[in-house]
Design brief:
- The complex is a heterodimer of chains A (about 325) and B (about 300).
- By secondary structure, chain A is mainly α.
- Chain A is about 75% helix and about 0% strand.
- In chain A, α12 packs antiparallel against α13.
- Chain A starts with a helix and ends with a helix.
- Chain B has one domain: MetI-like (MetI-like fold, Orthogonal Bundle).
- In chain B, α4 runs antiparallel to α5, α4 runs parallel beside α7 and α5 runs antiparallel to α8.
- Chain B is mostly helical.
- Chain B is built from 13 helices and no strands.
- The chains are: A mainly alpha (about 325), B mainly alpha (about 300).
- Chains A and B meet through α1, α6, α7, α8 and α10 of A and α5, α6, α11 and α13 of B.
């Protein structure tokens, strides 16, 4: 087992390094550090050179990459170029926390519902409920997420509120807390999380319920289920104890991968609901040319994705010994 | 001629069509898609107003007799824009799907058939690209290129071939062990000849499914990109995505600006997904590219990237 874990970790290192260089190169192309100074006619050439020098931008790209990398791994993410020179890390940390809260809520909720729906679909295979849930799943993966978000805002923020005659609307359509909110208020926070979570969950439930259905059908056709039935166990016990438990493995592993992907993939939901997380920080940094911020957000998101992929692989290896043996 | 009982002598295409047509959802979806294509291609004939025509006196007009779906902030008829935009959206979706599937098939075939270190390098690249947060990478790529239709197609294709490559490789790995490959090689067929004359025809099912699922994915990703302002320019080329992006702020006063384009995307993608699913059944294609013995977690499939 230890060998398996070490091997998996060792293969991650070169990938992370390659990605970090690609990110560095891309961020330089996108944010064009020092570009505003270079085209400003009021800045004399001497001042320009001095400024670029102070940021270390006169060095060749590979050298700057090594410098940045050594700072990065030591936890020095630099200072933002546009937010009055405030440090990058505290801003990123707040955004990362917010994103993880939203992702965690959505994934846990979707897992619970997806597993339940998938189990019912598999047990009542080809029933009306199964077809209805299949149609729902197809709708879930076909509706653009941003549009779903907009429609939920329109419904809860305008139509339902008008119909009920309440102001402010039942569920807030943007932000993380009410204006003027002092301190932390759990109810207020949950109400603000409701719509973004709904938006995210529809697609996740659609995917998880399909996985769960396929996985459970697969397990139910295996020999140990026949043995369990042969022992005379109740069908309910067979399905839950022997079927669902084994069928959970691929679904939960996929959820682990999703947590990583979602840290970077929340961009749309965060923008629609003006939720202060990593995705929005990334887009702001990209459009604002905030080069240290862009580097920090992309690198942390990429690292999160790769770490969660690794975690999912290890998790799978722990749960299913065949994987361990197979990949030696 | 004694044909064994139960063996089908039907032509493969006819068999596939019969199996496809048995599924009503797939047939209806195909009909809807044909309708959408005809309506958008015939936009000149059907649209009440020419593309981009503004009506200064009727800004943000309600849906009514003159404007069936209302007008936007420049007084452009939403219905006309919707039809013209659909043409661009569909064209982008199909071009990306074809290009990405072409690339993915090539990579998958070479990796699977040639094997060895070529396989390791190609699959390491594929897995690395697959492991990245998809939307973020696409956005950075789009930012580096530009906002013409061509740029968007290029970015989406360059970053959309990986899932196909995995599926094709998996299939090729099992095909290459079969007798017909051995006999072709015994008769002196070279690597490329085996790949294109003998393996490729056996991959038609996988490729057809990949094209349909990639089309659905590309339409969704393009709409997200354009909605966020990183995709096709809003100035002169309407797409369903940038119609939403440009009008989002007026949603509460003019919901007719955001509901129709979103519905159009959802219905089109839903139908493409149903057709793809029908094709998968009709052509007997399995979902993931891994062989049965080494199956691990299920692959998310081409249509469910991270576009959240």
């Amino acid at each position: 087992m230890t060998r398996f874990v070490l091997r998996r970790i060792a293969t991650m290192v070169p990938i992370l390094l390659a990605i970090s260089f690609a990110v560095f190169w891309a961020a330089n192309r996108i944010a064009k550090p020092g570009y505003d100074i270079a085209i400003n006619p009021r800045v004399s050439p001497a001042d320009r050179a001095a400024y670029l020098d102070s940021l270390g931008l006169n060095e060749p790209l590979p050298l700057r990459y090594l410098q940045w990398l050594s700072d990065f791994v030591r936890g020095d993410l630099g200072t933002s170029l546009v937010r009055n020179g405030s440090e990058v890390w505290p801003i990123v940390r707040t955004a990362l926390t917010n994103t993880l809260v939203l992702v965690g809520t959505a994934v846990v909720l979707s897992l619970a519902l997806g597993i339940a729906i998938g189990t019912v679909s598999a047990v009542r295979r080809n029933s009306f409920a199964d077809y209805a849930m299949a149609t729902f799943s197809f709708a879930g993966i076909s509706i653009p997420v941003f549009w779903l978000g907009l429609m939920l805002q329109l419904f809860f923020g305008l139509y339902l509120a008008n119909w009920l005659g309440v102001t402010p609307p039942l569920l807030p359509t943007a932000g993380l807390y009410s204006p003027g909110q002092q301190g932390f208020d759990l109810v207020d926070r949950i109400r603000h999380l409701a719509l973004p979570t709904m938006t995210l969950s529809l697609q996740l439930i659609a995917v998880y319920s399909r996985y769960m259905r396929a996985s459970l059908l697969d397990v139910m056709s295996s020999d140990h289920i026949r043995v369990a039935r042969g022992k005379g166990l109740a069908e309910r016990t067979v399905v839950i104890r022997h079927g669902v438990r084994n069928a959970l493995i691929p679904v939960t592993t996929q959820a682990a991968v999703d947590i990583g992907q979602l840290v970077g993939g929340l961009i749309v939901t965060e923008l629609v609901f003006q939720y202060p997380g990593m995705g929005r920080l990334f887009v702001d940094a990209m459009t604002g040319g905030d080069y240290p911020m862009l580097l920090a957000t992309t690198m942390i998101i990429a690292a999160a994705v790769i770490m969660m992929n690794l975690a999912a692989d290890l998790f799978y290896g722990v749960l299913d010994p065949r994987i361990r043996r197979g990949s030696r | 001629m004694a044909v064994a009982e139960g063996l089908s002598t039907e032509r493969p295409a006819a068999l596939a069509w019969r199996r496809f047509a048995r599924r009503r959802v797939a047939l209806v979806s195909l009909a809807v898609l044909v309708g959408v294509v005809l309506v958008t291609v015939g936009a000149e004939l059907l649209a009440p107003y020419p593309q981009g025509r503004t009506h200064a006196a009727d800004v943000l007009a309600n849906p009514g007799r003159d404007y069936l779906l209302g007008t936007d902030t420049l007084g452009r008829d939403t219905l006309s824009q919707l039809l013209y935009a659909g043409r661009v959206t569909l064209a982008v979706g199909v071009s990306v799907a074809l290009l990405a599937t072409f690339g993915g098939t090539l990579v998958g075939m070479v990796a699977g058939y040639v094997g060895g270190s070529v396989d390791s390098v190609l699959m390491r690249l594929t897995d690395t690209l697959l492991a990245l947060p998809a939307l973020m990478v696409v956005m950075m790529g789009a930012r580096m290129l530009g906002d013409s239709i061509f740029d968007v197609v290029l970015v989406l294709s360059l970053l959309g071939w990986m899932a196909v490559a995995r599926i094709i490789r998996g299939k090729v790995l099992s095909l290459r062990e079969m007798e017909f490959v051995a006999s072709a090689r015994a008769m002196g067929a070279g690597t490329w000849r085996v790949m294109f004359r003998h393996l490729l025809p056996n991959l038609v099912g996988e490729i057809a499914v990949a094209v349909s699922l990639a089309t659905a994915a590309a339409i969704l990703t393009e709409s997200v990109l354009s909605f966020l302002g990183f995709g096709v320019s809003q100035v002169d080329t309407p797409t369903w995505g940038n119609m939403l992006g440009g009008n989002e702020g007026f949603m509460t006063v003019a919901p007719w600006l955001v509901i129709p384009p979103g519905m159009a995307i959802a219905v089109t993608v839903l139908c493409v997904n149903f057709v793809g699913d029908g094709l998968r059944d009709a052509l007997d294609v399995r979902g993931d590219g891994r062989s049965r013995s080494s199956r691990r977690r299920p692959s998310p499939g081409a249509s469910t990237g991270s576009r959240r």
